[in-house]
């Protein structure tokens, strides 16, 4: 482990933020973290992280601050609200906004942060909790080149790939929405395919084995269908995340009157699952919207 002159902060120690924070610590970067969830804070402290009592305390300590929250409203509260990080940050420090947001919302968030003399990187992330824990996420970054360079050592600690999408704030978020469009549609398609196959008499395990060796496979099919096979819907990424993210995609397209028929259908599927009380289950639980399908059950295997 090597030590670095920069200090990092992470506001939001959820499934992605905790892994990123621990990766920063592992890289020898002094890292401060905050989350309202005491379990997450304890886990971070156990890994050698510095625990902060508020976003402001993180901001006061950090040269590079990652805001890893759920949406634009939470980001604005964590960065600019009462006890927010930005007011405590030294001029020239970098804010990396990682939440999935509409590009317009990110630009509105960046304006007062830049006006405060800070750098701002529009840096949504992808890869899931496992890659966050191993320091191998993907970052879709846009912003001033100086900001990206200053954040470079922190990015090296948390990411396998940082895509520089240019200086225009909002470009990173637009690419992330494209990624979420595809991710949501692929999960919905995988669920529909499994439900269809099982209803037609296919053995679900054999079906998974055949499809993952065939042209119909996708990364999401290969990653999410094992959750269905194991009857394991503990949330890695929840149904309600895709209600939110596909809603952002669909809403942004509607603003410019751009048709997204497959996104609209996938959004309806996740919304139906949420309405059925499945919103906090793993996003693979969208498979449960199909009636009369004998999905794998752990108690059946006993």
Alpha-beta content class? alpha/beta
User: Which percent range describes the beta-strand content?
Assistant: 5-15%
Calculate the terminal CA-CA distance, rounded to whole Å: 46 Å
Q: Any idea of the CATH topology of the largest domain? A: Rossmann fold
What is the architecture of the largest domain at the second tier of CATH? 3-Layer(aba) Sandwich
Tally of structural domains: 2
Radius of gyration: 20 Å
Secondary-structure element sequence?
EHEHEHEHEHEEHEHHEHHHHHH
Counting DSSP E segments of at least 2 residues, the number of strands comes to 9
Q: Just give the CATH class of the largest domain.
A: Alpha Beta
How many helical stretches? 14
Name of the CATH homologous superfamily of the largest domain: NAD(P)-binding Rossmann-like Domain
Q: Mean of the pLDDT scores?
A: 96
**General form:** globular
Poorly predicted ranges (pLDDT <50, ≥5 residues)? none
Major pleated sheet? 9 strands, mixed
Helical residue percent?
Answer: 40-55%
Question: What is the fold's blueprint, element by element?
Answer:
Blueprint: E1 7-11, H1 17-26, E2 30-34, H2 38-46, E3 50-51, H3 55-61, E4 64-67, H4 72-80, E5 94-97, H5 103-115, E6 119-122, E7 125-126, H6 128-133, E8 137-143, H7 145-150, H8 152-158, E9 159-164, H9 171-199, H10 204-212, H11 219-229, H12 239-255, H13 261-278, H14 298-301
Parallel strand pairs: 1-2, 1-4, 2-3, 4-5, 5-6, 8-9
Antiparallel strand pairs: 6-8, 7-8
Helix pairs in contact: 4-5, 9-11, 9-12, 9-13, 10-11, 12-13
Catalytic activity: L-threonate + NAD(+) = 2-dehydro-L-erythronate + NADH + H(+)
Keywords: Carbohydrate metabolism, NAD, NADP, Oxidoreductase
Domain 3-hydroxyisobutyrate dehydrogenase-like NAD-binding: 170-289
